[in-house]
Amino acid sequence: MSSSKIVIATLGSHSALQILKGAKDEGFRTALVCLKRRLGLYSRFKKLIDEMILVDSFAEVVSPEVQERLLSLNAVLIPHGSLVEYVDLETIEKRFKVPIFGNKYILRWEADRALKERLLREAGARTPRVYSSIDEVDKTVIVKLPGAKGGRGYFIASRSSEIRRRLEALKVSEDQVFIQEYVLGVTAYAHFFYSPLSGELELIGMDRRYETNADGLGRLPASVQLEARPELSFLVVGNIPVVLRESLLEEVFRVGDGLVEASKKLVPPGFIGPFCIEGAYDGEGNFYVFEFSARIVAGTNIYVYGSPYTWLIYDEPMSMGRRIAREIKRASEEGRLEALIT
Ligand code: AMP
After folding, report:
1. What is the CATH superfamily name and number for domain 110-126+184-333?
2. Which of 78, 96, 114, 251 is the most core-located residue (most Cβ within 10 A)?
3. 262 CA distance to ligand 1 middle (Å)
């Protein structure tokens, strides 16, 4: 692609507003692939958008027409959670011609639970125990169902008989589920940016997710919970800022560095730009990582004006969206765009 007059493009969802704002702050023109039914919403932010590409569904981003339009604009597409969720990854890997910011081949590693576990182990992260059989369950576990979006349909149980009963009712077989030790503690999600240009790993922010109804259940007295037996869900409705106790930061960076190295080895060229480590601290303060995301996460939306962590490095507001645009700008000035796109 040509490094002059790059357009920063993304799908209208997830962290799009922050990405567009960051691109504008760094002087780029922008394009938004927008669902027709969401035009009303994004029109409210029209000063952030130079080109609007209307579609009926996000899957259309891989259609010849939309690809042609993005290519003619000289666009770099910034991937986020909605691309991973709504667009077939194989198509992205093999037939998508528009340059994608980051390593598109690593998106598969966040979507596939076995690959994800492999990368986390290689990184030396402490992960919750995974049970290969229901009979092995000897403590509280979280049962993750196939394709459960936003954790809807996950359940927590502590006895094998209970898990079998629930799976039978749901008509889901044992080999379809992922049974993981439940980490009793508090969740924390670290947003990282790895710069292939500088070789440095930056902590851009931290959040915890505000999940319904898991975060609401604690308001019910135990007696009411026992009586009403509400179904649990982990649907994310927003994000809450977290600033970590400073002595815990070292461990978070150790896991971040480990993931960067593991990704270079297992999915070259490894992480490029944003990724997120998702885990929980147990009662002893041990950090267990149960997920990672290989692209920008929506928790970064809290910090459109920068976070306490970016303020330590930058003397200006720096969001993840802006950090991405800054990296593209630098690469384009230095003729090193190839290091950032796949
Ligand atoms: P996930 O789809 O794996 O991101 O999980 C959705 C939510 O379930 C997380 O944001 C956590 O609140 C919770 N969760 C997932 N795995 C665990 C675990 N092993 N221990 C405790 N909570 C978990």
Report:
1. ATP-grasp fold, B domain (3.30.470.20)
2. 78
3. 23
